[in-house]
Amino acid sequence: EPEVTQTPSHQVTQMGQEVILRCVPISNHLYFYWYRQILGQKVEFLVSFYNNEISEKSEIFDDQFSVERPDGSNFTLKIRSTKLEDSAMYFCASSVTSGANYGYTFGSGTRLTVV
Amino acid sequence: QQPVQSPQAVILREGEDAVINCSSSKALYSVHWYRQKHGEAPVFLMILLKGGEQKGHEKISASFNEKKQQSSLYLTASQLSYSGTYFCGTAPQGAQKLVFGQGTRLTINP
User: Could you tell me the sign of the dihedral formed by the alpha carbons of B90, B96, B102, B106, in that order?
Assistant: First the structure.
């Protein structure tokens, strides 16, 4: 069964450092998403991406965050200057069509720890 | 905008039934249900697109009442493997993203 692949599985970084989280969505999926989940809490929407541009973003997704699809397969989330409160599990997801119409496939996540 | 789930937690014995509810203050186009086991990614269970629709997945089924802006997930004759946190995700018409509820932790004991 096709999978969404995320790397690394765990990253520890110092406050103020830049991190890049990587995702390889399922190849025939057209919509891509980043969500995050602070330990034990709800899954929060960060950004959706379609046709090589951001289609929607949340208030969490401020100027410190950016997304790219640099090579047609990878989908990256960059946090420019990490803060302690950025510590969370970050999930990439993809879907064939708009998420309202089709289920998401989530990757296994990257646990980001900011110290 | 975030849907509200109830109850927050359920503890059952194997073989018992459970209902998890999801309510939204906004008109909905679709409702998704996902299950997340500890330390793992959420896994898609089912999507409901029409008002009054009911769908099934093994012994897990769901209904969607469009007028009431509510969905319910039914787990019958629960198995140990059903343990996890269940999230509903909702989307209004035209939306691309899902907004998830706070989750319902289901514990199944032998």
Answer: positive
**Cα-Cα-Cα-Cα dihedral of B83, B75, A97, A104, to 10°?**
0
Question: Distance between CA atoms of B85 and A8, rounded to whole angstroms?
Answer: 24
Preferred mutation among B45, B97, B100, B105 to probe A, highest tally of A CBs within 10 A:
B97
> Collapsing DSSP states into helix, strand and coil, what is residue B70?
strand
Task: Tell me the nearest-neighbour CA distance from B93 into chain A, angstroms.
Answer: 8
How far off is chain A from B19, nearest CA to CA, in Å? 19
> Given its phi and psi angles, is residue B5 left (phi above 0), alpha (psi -120 to 50 degrees) or beta?
beta
CA geometry: angle B5, B9, B11, nearest 5 deg = 140
For A24-76, what is each residue's pLDDT tens digit?
A: 999 889 999 999 999 878 899 999 999 889 999 999 999 999 999 988 789 99
Classify each residue of A7-35 as buried b or exposed e, where b means 16 or more C-beta atoms within 10 Å of its C-beta: eeeebebeeeeebebbbbbbeebebbbbb
CA dihedral B11, A110, B31, A47 (to 10 degrees): 150
Provide the CA B51 distance to its chain's centre, in angstroms.
16
Report yes or no: B87 and B20 within 8 Å, Cβ to Cβ.
no
Sheet holding A75-79, edge to edge: A5-7, A19-24, A75-79, A65-68
